Amino acid sequence: MSTTELLLISGSLRERSTNTAALRTAAANAGPGITTHHYTGAAFPQFDPDEDTDPLPESVAELRARIHAVDAVLLAVPEYAGGLPGSFKNLIDWTIADDSPGSLNGKPLAWINAAERGAEKAHAALREVLGYAGSVIVEQACAQVPIAHESVGADGLLTDPAASERVTAVLHALVAAVRG
Ligand SMILES: Cc1cc2nc3c(=O)[nH]c(=O)nc-3n(C[C@H](O)[C@H](O)[C@H](O)COP(=O)(O)O)c2cc1C
């Protein structure tokens, strides 16, 4: 059986991020036949349509190549001030112009909502933005798994077994959808 490749993108740049920990934990428990790649995008230039042309900024070209190389994308994005983190929206803006086969346009995608406070506005915005991107949202793999800041261990993984199990189930649901 060939491996299923996933790109995991956290919308938080925080070192002890609950969103990043959720993705890391799901990846650590993925099991055989699944390869995960983490992406932070910390070094992105600010989106400028004038720069969205060949040759692309190196980090943008790399992001687009990474998206093309995987079968699906798994996100975990926090809410800041009632919306998506600016850094994450910036990352997505850099992907919009690429609608070639293998891009976010048509790519299966799901998310973990790790917010304790719900983050409804950010996730409503996420759904809308991904609509512009043309991603295929795998609804059965999108889940709310509230994670407390204290649940991130020194190793960057979740210490709560129930939350670990749930984020891993999200990843497996996405893989199952991709494999059909
Ligand atoms: C400046 C700031 C604004 C925030 N605004 C919101 C908000 O509007 N809604 C919300 O649910 N959480 C909000 N939060 C809480 C963060 O989303 C929360 O700390 C979350 O755990 C951050 O994600 P991370 O743990 O992956 O870094 C805010 C936090 C900060 C620092």
Relevant terms:
180 residues, alpha/beta, Rossmann fold, six-stranded parallel β-sheet, 5 helices, 37% helix, globular, binds flavin mononucleotide
Molecular structure report:
This protein is an alpha/beta fold and 180 residues long. It has one domain (4-179): Flavodoxin domain (Rossmann fold), CATH 3.40.50. Helices cover 37% and strands 16% of the residues. It has helices spanning 18-28, 58-69, 86-96, 120-133, 161-179; strands spanning 4-10, 34-39, 72-76, 108-113, 136-137, 143-144. Strands 1, 2, 3, 4, 5 and 6 form a 6-stranded parallel sheet that branches. Helix 4 (120-133) links the parallel strand 4 (108-113) and strand 5. It is globular. The model has no long low-confidence stretch (mean pLDDT 96).
Topology:
Layout: E1 4-10, H1 18-28, E2 34-39, H2 58-69, E3 72-76, H3 86-96, E4 108-113, H4 120-133, E5 136-137, E6 143-144, H5 161-179
Parallel strand pairs: 1-2, 1-3, 3-4, 4-5, 4-6
The site of flavin mononucleotide has 14 residues, from α1.
